[in-house]
Amino acid sequence: MFFSKISGKRKLQEAFINIIAKAGLHFIGVLRKDTLEIVFVNEPGVGLFGYKSTSELISKFGPELRKKEISDLEILKVNEIIHAKGYYSDEAEYVSKDGIIFWGSLQLNPFSENGTDYLLAQLEKIDRVKNAERTLFGEKDRFGVLMDCASIGVIIVDRNEEIVIANPSALKMFGYENGELVSKKLGTLIPDKFQGKHMEYHRAFFTNPENRPMGTGGDLFAKRKDGTEFPVEISLGTYSIENEMFAIAFVSDITLRKKAQEQIINLNKELEQKVKQRTDELALTIEKLESQVKETEETEAAARESLDKERQLNELKSRFVTMASHEFRTPLSTVLSSTYLLQKYITAEDQPKREKHIARIISSVNLLTDILNDFLNVGKIDEGKIEPKYSYIRILGCVNALINEVLAVRKEGQQIIYKHEGSDVVWFDAALLKHILMNLLSNAIKFSVEDSEILIETTHQDSLFTLRVKDHGIGISKKDQEHLFERFYRASNVNNIQGTGLGLHIVLKYTELLKGHIHCNSDLGKGTEFILSFKLDHEHEKNSDHRRQ
Amino acid sequence: MKKILIIEDNEILLENIAEILKLSDYDVVLAKNGREGIEMATAEKPDMIICDIMIPEMDGYEVLAFLNNKIDTRDIPFIFLTAKSEKNDFKKGLELGADFYLTKPFDGATLLTAVESVLKI
């Protein structure tokens, strides 16, 4: 109440002061400059410090409201500043009546009245963001060592994406000087192409904050001051001070790791390729080995087979040699002896004798030719070169002609009886039939004694044609019957009877060619009978060009 | 005139051998198998026997062995005339006491030489 009401202007001033005293937003007070005693304080200022009336604050030593005591030296300094700049301002912590500490921004402006110096003090409670930030810095101070020494980059941003703190590692990582990053937008550190997405993530993160690692789903990149990009791994966390939320990002430069990973991936690829290559090579080697083994096996099998064939051939050869020795030598002897005698018969009267010996030579040569033909036929059969040639033949005619042929060579008193039943015309191979019957008949003659009876029977009924040759000769033992049809095989009881051992083998082969069966019934000393049966192929018969009506 | 018994199952060859020997003034007796041969040898007392080995009834070896066991036939000179040309057959024949082993095929001159040389012994 040291303002006096003087004039209209003064009245306005009075009203102004009154309104300030009651309704100002902040603490407004007046302090004696020399004593720093509060001489005036407005109502909001009283409320700020938790007092009930202005009187409680009046005469208080202003700096007393501060949390931290102020030394005389500091007061001196403040005065110096005011003197120099015309005002003083700072931010400091204040304590209310009930002990609540808060930050306030103080500004002091000097003025004089009636020779006394005063200070207009305006104190604004710093808003909670600022307050939180300060706490954060306080925290930073507390954990400063941690932050400064961490090899990992630590960046703290507020809700507005403004960087509040970046530790030395982060600065180094991004290429900034100390303090350069504070108040910069977070986007500064993010490559342009990722900006859009980043904003989305950022907003989503602040809506639903959760501590999480970033970049696990894909590769994250950050941007240095010089614009270069580098791969990073980021862990996000939140930090809340006085309801204000901050995001803390722990950033690792993973360039090296990435390179290492790439190297590992490349190495892996190389390794895989090598493994694949080796596997392929191995597979190839195995394949080669297998084929070699197979080849060896085949070669062995072929060798075995050829060895078998050779053995068979050797056996055949030895049997042939034996056969030739026995069968060739006798007719050759006849040829040689008859030739000798031809030389001796030189007179005209000797002509009949000469003719007889010429006939003997011819007959012996024919016998030799027959033996050779038998041998060659076996070869042809083996090579599959003989094919039946079918035509309609008259059985009775064929068989009788054959019988006439062999009559000359039968033994004394031997009788050949022939019977036929059924149709005379048969669809058959005449040449093969002749060969078969000739063989069986000569055997019957050869192995039967004089005055014995040889029976030939043929039947032709429906599609079945059978041929039976029966003698009363020396017979064949059961043991010999097992080998009867083998090449060069000769029964044990015919050793001293001429024969090649080829006849029955050829008979069997020809029978098989004609799709027939051969059966032998024989008893030693009683006789032998061969029964051949052929199932005639009517389809074949009908379709044949050689059909005879 | 020397009498020679020929034992041979091939009738034509038998006739040829006989003819060759007759032309050289030998008397011949013929047999077509081993059994007949022994009968003839015993009955005819030939000066020599020419015998095939592979013949019916009894083979040549059996014939020789049989005749060797009888006093009146064991000294008759014996020639094998055979298709069996193996060394072992030859050896077996001589071991049995044959005087000559002649293999087929043979020509008349060789046969006569063999007969003459055996008769001279």
Topology summary:
The complex is a heterodimer of chains A (549) and B (121).
Chain A: H1 8-23, E1 27-32, E2 38-41, H2 43-48, H3 54-57, H4 72-85, E3 88-95, E4 101-113, E5 116-125, H5 128-142, H6 144-149, E6 153-158, E7 163-166, H7 168-174, H8 195-207, E8 212-214, E9 220-223, E10 229-241, E11 244-253, H9 255-344, H10 351-382, E12 391-394, H11 395-407, E13 415-422, E14 425-428, H12 430-446, E15 453-461, E16 464-470, H13 478-483, H14 503-513, E17 516-523, E18 527-535, H15 538-543
Parallel strand pairs in A: 13-15
Antiparallel strand pairs in A: 1-2, 1-5, 3-4, 4-5, 6-7, 6-11, 8-10, 9-10, 10-11, 12-14, 15-16, 16-18, 17-18
Helix pairs in contact in A: 9-10, 10-14, 11-12, 12-14
Chain B: E1 3-7, H1 11-23, E2 27-31, H2 34-44, E3 48-51, H3 60-68, E4 78-82, H4 87-95, E5 100-103, H5 108-120
Parallel strand pairs in B: 1-2, 1-3, 3-4, 4-5
Helix pairs in contact in B: 2-3
Task: Describe the 3D structure.
Chain A folds into 4 domains: 8-126, Beta-Lactamase (2-Layer Sandwich); 131-253, PAS domain (Beta-Lactamase, 2-Layer Sandwich); 269-376; 386-543, Histidine kinase-like ATPase, C-terminal domain (Heat Shock Protein 90), CATH 3.30.565. The model of chain A is unreliable at 1-5 and 543-549 (pLDDT under 50). Chain A is built from 15 helices and 18 strands. Chain A has 549 residues and is α+β, with helices and mostly antiparallel strands. Helix content of chain B is 45%, strand content 19%. Chain B has a 5-stranded parallel β-sheet, with helices on both faces. The chains are: A alpha+beta (549), B alpha/beta (121). Chain A binds chain B through residues 325-326, 329-330, 332-341, 344, 357, 360, 363-364, 495-498, and chain B through 9-10, 12-13, 16-17, 19-20, 23, 54-56, 59, 83-86, 103-109, 111.
